[in-house]
Amino acid sequence: VLLRWLQSDHVGSEISHIIIDEVHERTVQTDFLLGLLKPVLKLRPDLKVILMSATLDATLFDKYFRASGCSQIAHVDVEGRTFPVHPIFLQQAVRFADYVIEDDSPYARRAVYDAATMLALENTSKSTTHLTDSAKHLMKGVSATGLVDGGA
Length: 152
Hints:
Elements: H1 2-8, E1 17-20, H2 28-43, E2 48-51, H3 58-66, H4 90-96, H5 106-126, H6 133-145
Parallel strand pairs: 1-2
């Protein structure tokens, strides 16, 4: 929206502040906007541009805007806090929630199919003609679910 506005009103006369968050991500849109803002700031010294990021390299943007003649550049550093992160994987979450997938669920059938495929591929690489008893058993179970045709 801002880019369209600046196309029609090249100095953004109705805008007093522009806030760009997560500026460290350096997308095409933000880089293009920063390129448009350089000449606008020369014409509009009253326009305030606020760049925000948790991991901003302030000196990079400081140099960028000072090179275009902007002299009123301020930095505000807000001390952040880190919080401990405890990764929980899907298998743990399912156990923690005490959830059991029903036997006729498509997810259960998919898990059986994936396990059988893994065993079959593993054993096929060892011997192209023989599968272990466990792989045969799993393949029969998969065939019974209707996911694949035929048995082992």
